Amino acid sequence: MRVERSAKRVRAYFGGELVADTTAPRLVWEIPHYPAYYLPRSSVRAELRPAGETRDGVQVHDVVTRGGTAAAAATTYPDSAQLADLVRFDFAAMDEWLEEDEPIYVHPRDPYKRVDVLNSSRHVRVALGGVTLAASSQPRILFETSLPPRYYLPLSDVRFDLLTPSATETQCPYKGTSSYWSVEVNGVLHEDLVWIYRSPLPESQKIAGMACFFSEKVDLFVDGELQEKPETPWS
To answer: Residue 67 belongs to a domain with what CATH number?
Structure first.
């Protein structure tokens, strides 16, 4: 576990009420992939009502505001040298989180993670089962720390006759909300193979309205060369 102080003002809301407001939040890496916010106990405006016995130095609390109760949504660690004066609020249990005056989604953004979107003239072709799904010479390539490059293609270069809209949506704290298509090739339906960010967050605006295929699940050719399928959580 790694703990760092952040310089951002962070606020959390629940039930229409301010739960916490601080300019001294801590970023805590409980897992390697991204941090969680731990906020000073002195910054908490809501009532923290004990929700059970303290076990192994962990105390779980309900978060109570005039607008409602978020059950078991806060955790404190009174026996921890690093975390004793901090409160961890379950991110998804809160109605809204703000960094300064901008909302954040899914989880706090890792300050050591970077997203770059670059225009390119490389020729990209996507195929599956010997059938070309898309081909373009004007991709935008998204480079995200610790993930493979993602090739976003203009919709006009994608074979829509092979795509079926999906009800799936996912959220990314760096890019926003994505929607999906499934692809049918040779009588086989490959679910949620393609995604699009129609209204991405400001730092990822250059991929707005472009389609991206899971390179883990298709044959991806860049300048005529077949790329090795990357190993990721989506492989």
So the answer is: 2.170.150.40
